[in-house]
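Deviation from plan, reported transparently: heme C complex.
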Amino acid sequence: MKRSLFAILAVLILGAMALSACGGKQQVANSEGTKTTVEVPAAYKGKTNPMANDSAAAEKGKGIYTTNCASCHGDSGKGDGPAGASLDPHPGNLDVAQANGDDYLFWRISEGGMTAPFNSSMPAWKAILSEDEIWQVVAYIDTFK
Ligand code: HEC
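Because the crystal trials were delayed, the predicted structure below was used instead.
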């Protein structure tokens, strides 16, 4: 009896250690089905969409998305846009990325993926779209889930 209690305790402690080791990191699924672990930078971490669940904002986001994003990411964010097909790394499934949270999406759309660890052709949009427009796109991506 004592021994099994000890075993349960050991499992719990090891589990807690494993959890804290990856605290704050995001698992990112990419097209190859592999996972990369990245951390949202401090400047973006914890941001939430001021336009969450705002259907008018999502409607504006849809227009921005159709013009700027669908060519690579596809109309419904599956990564199947005509310009995205041959890219390596391939545009991710935004449905999957959406689960990483508002701050992750806002960061990735703002800064793009041209630098490590992504090294992709995902453009940085912060000089092109306003913060409000980026949040409108995030509100639209939320409708993909
Ligand atoms: C030139 C093609 C291209 C365009 C245009 C483009 N993207 Fe991307 N995007 C990519 C690629 C390739 C990736 C995957 C590599 C990466 O994560 O950097 C990506 C990744 C992303 C991610 C992270 C996905 C993940 O799996 O973590 C988000 C979010 C995203 N794009 C949103 C957008 C939005 C919103 C727009 C329009 C404002 C846009 N992208 C326009 C190519 C593009």
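Helices lie at 2-21, 55-68, 70-73, 94-98, 102-111, 131-142. We consider this an acceptable substitute for the interim report.
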